[in-house]
Amino acid sequence: MVVYGERWDSPDSLAVLYQRRSSTWERTASWPAHNGRLGWTTDHHMDDERSPVGVFTLTDAGGTLEDPGSRLEYWQDDNAYAAMLNPDEAHAHDFDYVIAIDYNRLKSAPPFDWSRPDGVEKGGGIWLHTDHGDGTSACVTVPETGMKILLRVLDPAQHPVVVMGDRERLES
Fold first, then answer.
1. CA 160/CA 158 separation, integer angstroms
2. What CA–CA distance (Å, rounded) separates 168 from 114?
3. Residue 114 to residue 146: CA distance in whole angstroms
4. What domain of life (predicted)?
């Protein structure tokens, strides 16, 4: 998957799913997406409201809703995710579906695990999750239909990754 940010300081992106077909990569889906409110960074820190630029593995998933058929290990726990949100907020459904982006986190752990191997100051808890229509604290969001497709398609045996950043950095 590739997430192309419009500009280094923009919260607007395009998420594109590529799948390997024989010896070539084929674009199989795309969705409007959002990233950090203040754009992208190559030096992410806790609460900077920027998404980290890089290539990250995708190994674990979960959400407040039951597993829609995820091929990644899925942790359903409405209390763990909902505790991060006020249910009366416009963002009450953000964590219906979540795929952990392996930035400063332990793999094979629930997405809501707050262990930070590189230290708390480097941030963490960066996920692909259900879109709410605007920028995030550092996560990447796609529409619910996109999240369901990703959960059903991303195969841990194929070692899925997300390549993410502003278009200028990704194309240079």
1. 6
2. 32
3. 25
4. Bacteria
Distance CA 139, CA 111 (A): 12
Of 159, 148, 130, which is closest to residue 69 (Cα–Cα)? 148
- Residue 20 CB contacts under 8 Å (≥ 6 apart), including other chains: 26, 158
d(CA 83, CA 142): 21
Are 99 and 129 contacting, i.e. CB atoms less than 8 angstroms apart?
A: yes
State whether residue 136 is helix, strand or coil: strand
Residue showing tokens 């997406």: 33
In DSSP notation, 42-106 reads SS--TT---EEPEEEEEEEEEESSPPSS-SSEEEE-HHHHHTTS-TTSTTTTTTSSEEEE-SSS-
Residue 118: DSSP 8-state? T
Regarding pTM above 0.70, the answer is yes
Rounded-to-integer distance, Cα 121 and Cα 96, Å: 27
Q: What is the pLDDT of residues 15-25, one digit of tens each?
A: 999 999 888 99
Q: Are 163 and 2 in contact (CB under 8 A)?
A: yes
